[in-house]
UniProtKB/TrEMBL annotation:
PANTHER family: TIR DOMAIN-CONTAINING PROTEIN (PTHR32009:SF39), TMV RESISTANCE PROTEIN N-LIKE (PTHR32009). Keywords: Hydrolase, NAD. Gene3D superfamilies: Toll/interleukin-1 receptor homology (TIR) domain (3.40.50.10140). Residues 16-148 form the TIR domain. It comes from Fagus sylvatica. This is ADP-ribosyl cyclase/cyclic ADP-ribose hydrolase.
Length: 148
């Protein structure tokens, strides 16, 4: 499904490889919601990048994930209880928002067993997770960059 599209705000041409990239925290949703979600997208003929558990962790997987995010028309973010506890998820979120700004990539949030107001306000069960990440990664990565 390789397709070229040009952005009005950029001279570059973006080649799309996927219809959808799904960002999710595997321990929260892999064996439940996201498995069903991926199956429904597949049945509908929607080409979706799937983060295979067999992909090696490290720079190689991050390079592959970045490319998949950049070459997807739509990014779906499945916010769950422990999504923000994962530096991988936060890195994906940061890249998705960069692509949204640069290429007008469509971003669709799904709130899985999470109250959207808690996520935006960084309160409730998520408060401790955000506090720990702000300490480790800084305000810009966790909440100061308009990611949430």
């Amino acid at each position: 499904m390789a397709q070229e599209t040009s952005s009005s705000s950029s001279e570059s041409i973006q080649t799309l490889c996927y219809d959808v990239f799904v960002s999710f925290y595997g321990k929260d949703t892999r064996l439940s919601f996201t498995d069903h979600f991926f199956a429904a997208l597949y049945r509908s003929g929607i080409l979706t990048f799937r983060d295979d558990r067999e992909l090696e962790r490290g720079k190689a997987i991050w390079t592959e994930l970045q490319k998949a995010i950049e070459t997807s028309r739509i990014a779906v973010i499945v916010f769950s209880r422990n999504y923000a506890a994962s530096s991988w998820c936060l890195d994906e979120l940061e890249k998705i928002m960069e692509c949204n700004r640069s290429f007008q990539q469509i971003v669709l949030p799904i709130y899985y067993n999470v109250d959207p107001s808690e996520l935006r306000a960084q309160k409730g069960n998520l408060a401790e997770v955000f506090a720990n990440h702000k300490e480790r990664f800084g305000e810009e990565k966790v909440g100061g960059g308009g990611l949430l």
